[in-house]
What we know:
By secondary structure, the chain is mainly α.
Amino acid sequence: MTHMLIAVTAMFLQQTCGSIARALPAVLAPLIIAELHADAAWVGIYFSLTAFAGLIGQLGSGGFIIRHGAIRMSQIALLFTGAGLAVAVLGGAVGFALSALIGNGVASVATPASSQLLGRWSVRRYAPFAFSIAQCAIPAGILLTGYLGPLTAQSFGWRDTMLASAALCWAVALMLQPLRGRLDTESSARHPIRLSDLGTTITAVLAVRELRSLSFACFAFNGTQAVFVAYFVTYMTSQGHPLVAAGSLYSTVIAVAVPGRILWAWVGGFYVAPHLVLGGLAFGMAVSIGLIGAFTPHWPLLAIGAVTMVVSATALSWHGIMLSEAARLAPPGRVGAVTGGVLSFGQIGALSSPAVFSLLLGLSGGYSAGWVVCAVPAVLVGVNMFRQGKPVQQRNAL
Length: 398
Protein backbone atom coordinates (compact mmCIF):
# COMPACT_ATOMS: atom_id res chain seq x y z
CA MET A 1 0.00 0.00 0.00
CA THR A 2 2.87 2.40 0.80
CA HIS A 3 4.45 1.84 -2.60
CA MET A 4 1.07 2.46 -4.27
CA LEU A 5 0.68 5.80 -2.49
CA ILE A 6 4.20 6.87 -3.44
CA ALA A 7 3.64 5.82 -7.06
CA VAL A 8 0.32 7.69 -7.26
CA THR A 9 1.87 10.85 -5.78
CA ALA A 10 4.86 10.73 -8.13
CA MET A 11 2.71 10.18 -11.19
CA PHE A 12 0.30 12.91 -10.11
CA LEU A 13 3.18 15.40 -10.08
CA GLN A 14 4.51 14.13 -13.38
CA GLN A 15 1.11 14.32 -15.09
CA THR A 16 0.32 17.76 -13.63
CA CYS A 17 3.47 19.28 -15.11
CA GLY A 18 2.86 17.65 -18.47
CA SER A 19 -0.74 18.85 -18.46
CA ILE A 20 0.27 22.45 -17.73
CA ALA A 21 2.79 22.39 -20.57
CA ARG A 22 0.32 20.91 -23.07
CA ALA A 23 -2.54 23.25 -22.15
CA LEU A 24 -0.51 26.47 -22.01
CA PRO A 25 -0.29 27.08 -25.79
CA ALA A 26 -4.08 26.71 -26.07
CA VAL A 27 -4.80 29.07 -23.18
CA LEU A 28 -2.31 31.67 -24.47
CA ALA A 29 -3.31 31.15 -28.12
CA PRO A 30 -5.06 34.54 -28.52
CA LEU A 31 -1.88 36.36 -27.43
CA ILE A 32 0.41 34.15 -29.53
CA ILE A 33 -1.82 34.45 -32.61
CA ALA A 34 -1.90 38.24 -32.30
CA GLU A 35 1.89 38.56 -32.00
CA LEU A 36 2.69 36.09 -34.78
CA HIS A 37 -0.13 37.38 -37.04
CA ALA A 38 -1.47 33.83 -37.47
CA ASP A 39 -4.96 32.52 -38.21
CA ALA A 40 -7.00 30.78 -35.50
CA ALA A 41 -7.18 27.66 -37.67
CA TRP A 42 -3.48 27.11 -36.99
CA VAL A 43 -4.32 26.21 -33.39
CA GLY A 44 -5.82 22.98 -34.65
CA ILE A 45 -2.81 22.31 -36.88
CA TYR A 46 -0.46 22.73 -33.92
CA PHE A 47 -2.40 20.28 -31.78
CA SER A 48 -2.65 17.83 -34.67
CA LEU A 49 1.15 17.89 -34.90
CA THR A 50 1.43 17.22 -31.17
CA ALA A 51 -0.94 14.28 -31.55
CA PHE A 52 1.06 12.87 -34.47
CA ALA A 53 4.25 13.02 -32.40
CA GLY A 54 2.40 11.50 -29.46
CA LEU A 55 1.11 8.66 -31.63
CA ILE A 56 4.64 7.63 -32.62
CA GLY A 57 5.91 8.05 -29.07
CA GLN A 58 3.20 5.95 -27.46
CA LEU A 59 3.39 3.19 -30.05
CA GLY A 60 7.10 2.79 -29.41
CA SER A 61 6.99 3.37 -25.65
CA GLY A 62 6.54 -0.20 -24.43
CA GLY A 63 10.08 -1.45 -25.04
CA PHE A 64 11.70 1.69 -23.63
CA ILE A 65 9.61 1.50 -20.44
CA ILE A 66 10.54 -2.16 -19.90
CA ARG A 67 14.20 -1.45 -20.58
CA HIS A 68 14.70 1.76 -18.60
CA GLY A 69 11.83 1.72 -16.09
CA ALA A 70 8.73 3.88 -15.65
CA ILE A 71 10.36 6.49 -13.41
CA ARG A 72 13.30 7.01 -15.76
CA MET A 73 10.99 7.39 -18.77
CA SER A 74 8.82 9.81 -16.79
CA GLN A 75 11.91 11.94 -16.14
CA ILE A 76 12.88 11.89 -19.82
CA ALA A 77 9.31 12.81 -20.79
CA LEU A 78 9.41 15.86 -18.51
CA LEU A 79 12.78 16.97 -19.87
CA PHE A 80 11.48 16.84 -23.44
CA THR A 81 8.21 18.55 -22.47
CA GLY A 82 10.16 21.50 -21.11
CA ALA A 83 12.42 21.51 -24.15
CA GLY A 84 9.39 21.75 -26.42
CA LEU A 85 8.13 24.87 -24.64
CA ALA A 86 11.56 26.47 -24.82
CA VAL A 87 11.82 25.82 -28.57
CA ALA A 88 8.39 27.39 -29.10
CA VAL A 89 9.43 30.53 -27.27
CA LEU A 90 12.71 30.92 -29.14
CA GLY A 91 11.70 29.83 -32.63
CA GLY A 92 8.57 31.76 -33.60
CA ALA A 93 6.14 30.01 -35.94
CA VAL A 94 8.72 27.41 -36.99
CA GLY A 95 9.58 26.91 -33.34
CA PHE A 96 5.98 26.03 -32.55
CA ALA A 97 5.98 23.36 -35.26
CA LEU A 98 9.19 21.89 -33.83
CA SER A 99 7.79 22.28 -30.33
CA ALA A 100 4.78 20.15 -31.22
CA LEU A 101 7.09 17.34 -32.35
CA ILE A 102 9.76 17.65 -29.64
CA GLY A 103 7.42 18.40 -26.76
CA ASN A 104 4.98 15.59 -27.39
CA GLY A 105 7.06 12.89 -29.08
CA VAL A 106 9.10 11.52 -26.22
CA ALA A 107 6.83 13.34 -23.76
CA SER A 108 3.89 11.11 -24.76
CA VAL A 109 5.63 8.21 -23.00
CA ALA A 110 4.52 9.77 -19.69
CA THR A 111 1.06 8.19 -19.53
CA PRO A 112 2.09 4.63 -20.51
CA ALA A 113 4.95 4.91 -18.02
CA SER A 114 2.49 6.00 -15.36
CA SER A 115 0.21 3.07 -16.19
CA GLN A 116 3.14 0.63 -16.01
CA LEU A 117 4.09 1.92 -12.57
CA LEU A 118 0.55 1.94 -11.21
CA GLY A 119 -0.16 -1.48 -12.69
CA ARG A 120 2.92 -2.77 -10.85
CA TRP A 121 2.25 -1.24 -7.43
CA SER A 122 -1.55 -0.77 -7.18
CA VAL A 123 -3.58 -3.03 -4.91
CA ARG A 124 -6.02 -4.69 -7.33
CA ARG A 125 -9.19 -3.62 -5.49
CA TYR A 126 -8.11 0.02 -5.52
CA ALA A 127 -6.56 0.08 -9.00
CA PRO A 128 -9.38 2.13 -10.63
CA PHE A 129 -8.98 4.75 -7.91
CA ALA A 130 -5.20 4.79 -8.23
CA PHE A 131 -5.40 5.31 -11.99
CA SER A 132 -8.13 7.93 -11.65
CA ILE A 133 -6.35 9.92 -8.94
CA ALA A 134 -3.17 10.00 -11.01
CA GLN A 135 -5.19 11.02 -14.07
CA CYS A 136 -6.87 13.82 -12.05
CA ALA A 137 -3.54 15.58 -12.56
CA ILE A 138 -4.54 16.29 -16.17
CA PRO A 139 -7.57 18.51 -15.37
CA ALA A 140 -5.72 19.88 -12.34
CA GLY A 141 -2.94 21.06 -14.63
CA ILE A 142 -5.41 22.52 -17.13
CA LEU A 143 -7.26 24.24 -14.29
CA LEU A 144 -4.08 25.88 -13.00
CA THR A 145 -3.15 26.90 -16.53
CA GLY A 146 -6.52 28.48 -17.23
CA TYR A 147 -6.43 30.56 -14.05
CA LEU A 148 -2.76 31.49 -13.87
CA GLY A 149 -1.70 31.43 -17.52
CA PRO A 150 -3.53 34.56 -18.71
CA LEU A 151 -2.73 36.50 -15.53
CA THR A 152 0.96 35.61 -15.67
CA ALA A 153 1.13 36.34 -19.39
CA GLN A 154 -0.43 39.77 -18.91
CA SER A 155 2.21 40.60 -16.28
CA PHE A 156 5.30 38.98 -17.77
CA GLY A 157 4.37 38.08 -21.35
CA TRP A 158 3.51 34.72 -22.88
CA ARG A 159 7.15 33.85 -23.59
CA ASP A 160 8.30 34.12 -19.95
CA THR A 161 5.18 32.25 -18.86
CA MET A 162 6.05 29.32 -21.12
CA LEU A 163 9.71 29.34 -20.02
CA ALA A 164 8.61 29.21 -16.38
CA SER A 165 6.50 26.15 -17.19
CA ALA A 166 9.51 24.54 -18.87
CA ALA A 167 11.61 25.14 -15.76
CA LEU A 168 8.89 23.52 -13.61
CA CYS A 169 8.99 20.37 -15.78
CA TRP A 170 12.77 20.14 -15.44
CA ALA A 171 12.61 20.63 -11.66
CA VAL A 172 10.07 17.83 -11.18
CA ALA A 173 12.18 15.53 -13.36
CA LEU A 174 15.01 16.00 -10.85
CA MET A 175 12.66 15.45 -7.91
CA LEU A 176 11.72 11.99 -9.21
CA GLN A 177 15.33 10.74 -9.18
CA PRO A 178 15.32 9.39 -5.59
CA LEU A 179 12.33 7.17 -6.43
CA ARG A 180 13.98 5.37 -9.30
CA GLY A 181 15.75 2.71 -7.25
CA ARG A 182 12.69 2.16 -5.08
CA LEU A 183 9.99 1.87 -7.74
CA ASP A 184 11.74 0.84 -10.99
CA THR A 185 12.18 -2.75 -9.86
CA GLU A 186 11.05 -4.37 -13.11
CA SER A 187 13.34 -2.61 -15.56
CA SER A 188 15.37 -4.91 -17.82
CA ALA A 189 18.53 -3.30 -19.22
CA ARG A 190 18.86 -5.97 -21.91
CA HIS A 191 15.32 -5.73 -23.24
CA PRO A 192 15.60 -5.22 -27.02
CA ILE A 193 14.23 -2.09 -28.72
CA ARG A 194 12.89 -2.88 -32.18
CA LEU A 195 11.26 -0.71 -34.83
CA SER A 196 8.75 -3.53 -35.33
CA ASP A 197 7.40 -2.78 -31.82
CA LEU A 198 5.33 0.00 -33.41
CA GLY A 199 3.31 -2.45 -35.50
CA THR A 200 3.29 -5.18 -32.86
CA THR A 201 1.65 -2.90 -30.32
CA ILE A 202 -1.15 -1.98 -32.71
CA THR A 203 -1.87 -5.54 -33.89
CA ALA A 204 -1.76 -6.90 -30.34
CA VAL A 205 -4.39 -4.42 -29.17
CA LEU A 206 -6.61 -4.93 -32.21
CA ALA A 207 -6.53 -8.71 -31.74
CA VAL A 208 -8.56 -8.50 -28.49
CA ARG A 209 -12.21 -7.45 -28.85
CA GLU A 210 -12.41 -5.59 -25.55
CA LEU A 211 -9.16 -3.72 -26.17
CA ARG A 212 -10.35 -2.94 -29.70
CA SER A 213 -13.50 -1.32 -28.26
CA LEU A 214 -11.43 0.65 -25.75
CA SER A 215 -9.16 1.83 -28.57
CA PHE A 216 -12.06 3.18 -30.64
CA ALA A 217 -13.49 4.84 -27.53
CA CYS A 218 -10.10 6.42 -26.82
CA PHE A 219 -10.01 7.69 -30.42
CA ALA A 220 -13.39 9.40 -30.07
CA PHE A 221 -12.98 10.67 -26.52
CA ASN A 222 -9.47 12.04 -26.93
CA GLY A 223 -10.43 13.70 -30.21
CA THR A 224 -13.34 15.48 -28.52
CA GLN A 225 -11.16 16.48 -25.59
CA ALA A 226 -8.41 17.78 -27.90
CA VAL A 227 -10.80 20.06 -29.78
CA PHE A 228 -12.31 21.42 -26.57
CA VAL A 229 -8.92 22.07 -24.94
CA ALA A 230 -7.45 23.60 -28.12
CA TYR A 231 -10.30 25.86 -29.15
CA PHE A 232 -12.55 26.75 -26.24
CA VAL A 233 -10.67 29.87 -25.06
CA THR A 234 -10.16 31.12 -28.62
CA TYR A 235 -13.84 30.40 -29.38
CA MET A 236 -14.97 32.41 -26.35
CA THR A 237 -12.74 35.38 -27.18
CA SER A 238 -14.07 35.33 -30.75
CA GLN A 239 -17.52 35.92 -29.27
CA GLY A 240 -16.36 39.00 -27.39
CA HIS A 241 -15.38 37.60 -24.00
CA PRO A 242 -12.11 38.95 -22.47
CA LEU A 243 -9.18 36.54 -22.33
CA VAL A 244 -8.96 36.51 -18.52
CA ALA A 245 -12.73 35.86 -18.23
CA ALA A 246 -12.55 33.09 -20.85
CA GLY A 247 -9.56 31.50 -19.11
CA SER A 248 -11.27 31.67 -15.72
CA LEU A 249 -14.44 30.05 -17.07
CA TYR A 250 -12.32 27.42 -18.77
CA SER A 251 -10.58 26.57 -15.50
CA THR A 252 -13.82 26.57 -13.53
CA VAL A 253 -15.46 24.01 -15.77
CA ILE A 254 -12.26 21.95 -16.02
CA ALA A 255 -12.35 21.61 -12.23
CA VAL A 256 -15.40 19.35 -12.62
CA ALA A 257 -13.16 16.70 -14.22
CA VAL A 258 -11.19 16.20 -11.00
CA PRO A 259 -14.05 14.71 -8.92
CA GLY A 260 -15.56 13.37 -12.16
CA ARG A 261 -12.65 11.00 -12.79
CA ILE A 262 -12.83 9.67 -9.25
CA LEU A 263 -16.63 9.34 -9.42
CA TRP A 264 -16.61 7.28 -12.62
CA ALA A 265 -13.86 5.04 -11.23
CA TRP A 266 -15.96 4.46 -8.10
CA VAL A 267 -19.10 3.70 -10.11
CA GLY A 268 -17.26 1.50 -12.62
CA GLY A 269 -15.22 -0.26 -9.95
CA PHE A 270 -18.05 -1.25 -7.62
CA TYR A 271 -21.52 -0.78 -9.13
CA VAL A 272 -21.75 -0.63 -12.94
CA ALA A 273 -19.76 -2.48 -15.60
CA PRO A 274 -16.98 -0.18 -16.87
CA HIS A 275 -18.09 -0.46 -20.51
CA LEU A 276 -21.56 0.80 -19.54
CA VAL A 277 -20.02 3.76 -17.71
CA LEU A 278 -17.96 4.55 -20.80
CA GLY A 279 -21.08 4.28 -22.97
CA GLY A 280 -22.94 6.75 -20.78
CA LEU A 281 -20.01 9.15 -20.89
CA ALA A 282 -19.97 8.88 -24.69
CA PHE A 283 -23.60 9.96 -25.04
CA GLY A 284 -23.15 12.75 -22.49
CA MET A 285 -20.19 14.24 -24.29
CA ALA A 286 -21.91 13.94 -27.68
CA VAL A 287 -24.88 16.03 -26.54
CA SER A 288 -22.86 18.63 -24.63
CA ILE A 289 -20.14 19.15 -27.25
CA GLY A 290 -22.82 19.58 -29.91
CA LEU A 291 -24.53 22.24 -27.80
CA ILE A 292 -21.33 24.30 -27.68
CA GLY A 293 -21.87 24.95 -31.38
CA ALA A 294 -25.12 26.72 -30.50
CA PHE A 295 -23.42 29.33 -28.31
CA THR A 296 -23.93 32.96 -29.31
CA PRO A 297 -22.67 36.20 -27.73
CA HIS A 298 -26.13 36.53 -26.17
CA TRP A 299 -25.89 33.30 -24.17
CA PRO A 300 -25.51 34.02 -20.42
CA LEU A 301 -22.25 32.80 -18.90
CA LEU A 302 -24.25 30.64 -16.47
CA ALA A 303 -25.77 28.66 -19.34
CA ILE A 304 -22.40 28.38 -21.11
CA GLY A 305 -20.87 27.18 -17.85
CA ALA A 306 -23.59 24.54 -17.35
CA VAL A 307 -23.06 23.04 -20.82
CA THR A 308 -19.29 23.06 -20.59
CA MET A 309 -19.38 21.49 -17.14
CA VAL A 310 -21.11 18.50 -18.71
CA VAL A 311 -18.34 18.44 -21.33
CA SER A 312 -15.80 18.43 -18.51
CA ALA A 313 -17.63 15.68 -16.60
CA THR A 314 -17.62 13.45 -19.70
CA ALA A 315 -15.04 14.33 -22.36
CA LEU A 316 -12.38 15.13 -19.73
CA SER A 317 -13.26 12.50 -17.11
CA TRP A 318 -12.95 9.08 -18.78
CA HIS A 319 -9.20 8.49 -18.49
CA GLY A 320 -8.91 6.65 -15.18
CA ILE A 321 -11.58 4.06 -15.82
CA MET A 322 -10.38 3.43 -19.38
CA LEU A 323 -6.74 3.04 -18.38
CA SER A 324 -7.62 0.74 -15.47
CA GLU A 325 -9.63 -1.44 -17.89
CA ALA A 326 -6.71 -1.58 -20.33
CA ALA A 327 -4.39 -2.49 -17.46
CA ARG A 328 -6.80 -5.20 -16.27
CA LEU A 329 -6.85 -6.79 -19.71
CA ALA A 330 -3.08 -6.59 -20.20
CA PRO A 331 -0.73 -9.54 -19.60
CA PRO A 332 1.58 -9.26 -16.55
CA GLY A 333 4.48 -6.92 -17.19
CA ARG A 334 2.92 -5.54 -20.38
CA VAL A 335 0.65 -2.83 -18.93
CA GLY A 336 2.75 0.02 -20.36
CA ALA A 337 2.78 -1.48 -23.85
CA VAL A 338 -0.95 -2.27 -23.87
CA THR A 339 -2.03 1.12 -22.53
CA GLY A 340 0.37 2.73 -25.00
CA GLY A 341 -1.39 0.84 -27.79
CA VAL A 342 -4.85 1.92 -26.64
CA LEU A 343 -3.69 5.50 -26.12
CA SER A 344 -2.14 5.58 -29.59
CA PHE A 345 -5.66 5.43 -31.00
CA GLY A 346 -6.47 8.37 -28.78
CA GLN A 347 -3.57 10.22 -30.35
CA ILE A 348 -5.02 9.47 -33.79
CA GLY A 349 -8.24 11.07 -32.59
CA ALA A 350 -6.33 14.03 -31.16
CA LEU A 351 -4.52 14.34 -34.50
CA SER A 352 -7.53 14.10 -36.80
CA SER A 353 -10.24 15.91 -34.83
CA PRO A 354 -8.49 19.31 -34.47
CA ALA A 355 -7.42 19.05 -38.13
CA VAL A 356 -11.02 18.43 -39.25
CA PHE A 357 -12.19 21.22 -36.94
CA SER A 358 -9.64 23.59 -38.50
CA LEU A 359 -10.74 22.59 -41.98
CA LEU A 360 -14.39 23.23 -41.19
CA LEU A 361 -13.47 26.53 -39.53
CA GLY A 362 -11.62 27.61 -42.66
CA LEU A 363 -14.39 26.50 -45.02
CA SER A 364 -17.37 27.81 -43.08
CA GLY A 365 -15.80 30.78 -41.33
CA GLY A 366 -17.52 29.73 -38.10
CA TYR A 367 -17.18 27.22 -35.27
CA SER A 368 -20.64 25.62 -35.14
CA ALA A 369 -20.14 22.85 -37.72
CA GLY A 370 -16.92 21.69 -36.09
CA TRP A 371 -18.50 21.23 -32.67
CA VAL A 372 -21.38 19.21 -34.11
CA VAL A 373 -19.10 16.95 -36.16
CA CYS A 374 -17.10 16.19 -32.98
CA ALA A 375 -20.20 14.57 -31.48
CA VAL A 376 -20.54 11.86 -34.15
CA PRO A 377 -17.72 9.47 -33.07
CA ALA A 378 -18.89 9.69 -29.45
CA VAL A 379 -22.39 8.58 -30.44
CA LEU A 380 -20.95 5.55 -32.24
CA VAL A 381 -18.89 4.65 -29.17
CA GLY A 382 -21.95 4.88 -26.94
CA VAL A 383 -23.90 2.49 -29.17
CA ASN A 384 -20.97 0.05 -29.31
CA MET A 385 -20.40 0.05 -25.55
CA PHE A 386 -24.04 -0.61 -24.73
CA ARG A 387 -24.08 -3.54 -27.17
CA GLN A 388 -21.22 -5.33 -25.40
CA GLY A 389 -21.77 -8.28 -23.14
CA LYS A 390 -20.25 -9.17 -19.78
CA PRO A 391 -16.63 -8.02 -19.38
CA VAL A 392 -13.90 -10.67 -19.63
CA GLN A 393 -11.21 -11.40 -17.05
CA GLN A 394 -7.56 -10.42 -17.29
CA ARG A 395 -5.67 -11.64 -20.35
CA ASN A 396 -2.69 -13.93 -19.84
CA ALA A 397 -1.36 -13.31 -23.31
CA LEU A 398 -2.05 -11.20 -26.33
